[in-house]
Amino acid sequence: MEAYLEQLVSGQPADYVEIRLEETETTTIQFRGPALDNLAESAVLGGCVRALVKGGWGFVSFNRLEDLEKKVALAIEQARLVADRQPGESRLAPAPVVRDKVAAVLDEDPRRLTLAAKKEVLEGYNRRVLEFGPPIVSSRVVYFDKFTRLRFANSEGTYIEQEKMDLGGAVVAIAHRAGDTQMLSRGFGSSNGFRVVRGLEADIDDACRRAAALIDAPVVEAGEYTVVVDPLLAGVFVHEAFGHLSEADNVYENPSLQQVMTLGREFGGPHLNIFDSGDLPGVRGYLKYDDEGVPTGKTYLIKEGKLVGRLHSRETAGRMGEGVTGNARAIDYRFPPICRMRTTGIEPGEAPFEEMIKDIKLGVYARSSYGGETAGEMFTFTAGDAVMIRDGKLAEVVRNVTLTGNVFETLKNIDMIGSDFSTRDSAGGCGKARQAPLATSMVSPHIRIRKVVMGGKAR
User: pTM, whole model, 2 decimals?
Assistant: First the structure.
């Protein structure tokens, strides 16, 4: 197969040609309350060809390996037609030629477990939630594992065979009383095996207790607070509010964003370092090579408070005159790769948690994430739950904690960064350009932010 794929992409009448083949095995298990909602195993074979001619791209995906020569020719013809209508110049940033075979290193291979064995573990977690007692009334459990074998060849001489494991899930506790419903979840995810699914009993009990506490918790009073954000919510913030702004196709196609995202601009204090990395083993965002065959590594976006980088495909790097970063990704063979995050996070600082709250007279400790949205520079995020900070100590639980603001002002208002560091992985994924869910991870310590506007009950 190696020689055949290399033959297909070599000597073609195009500036660049690549071919990608994927074989994927997937298991899915879901519970909704006491009912087993989904139990499935599947296998998919597919591939795609991408060709570049005078700045025009052609793309063909397929599920059958017959007539690959015709599929390569069709992609080249598409690229030529695009170039005829939109004449331009092919600009791909240089990337190293790679010859490599990457085997997955797994702590506990889920393929060696029966479907019944996986179901037994998850059914036990589901039963644990349902038996917790009032006000917990229902549950939801989602789980998947996906093992993929990839083959990639391009016309520059790169050939890579790569195995990937992606596993994710969540256990959700749902509380209800007198028309009020609250919920909290414990997510998990991994790129190196099933072990992350085991031993979650204490975390699930904690999610049940916190969901139950929200039923009786008061609504937070609206206002401006100093907020300490836990690693889960901080990770969501940096991914959604800043990571997407750092994807170079978003910058390249938006003149106003180009003016804002100017390299060297100061966005925070010297203690603030934000990065995106493909080489953190074990997390869902781990990958050795992106879907253009470019080695991944660690890319700083903000270094000591200043914007120093962005996330590139080979095309955006070539058009912007910057180096490749290994951020061209596709959810599968049906899509061409675009600029996407891998594992995005804030580097740890030096502050213990107690130091972060001790001088706050009235503030909020926001935990977990219940969702959010961004619109350019503006964001809105809802915490899963929260605890008031009064005179430097944690006090009562509150709910309906929604943080809003401008991302750039918020980054400048981060005045303390914790010395801890943890990962946020779950069953979901990142969405962009109709490609979802893509496996990404978020890592962060606790962070403290001044002057956060919070919605809630009027004072």
Answer: 0.95
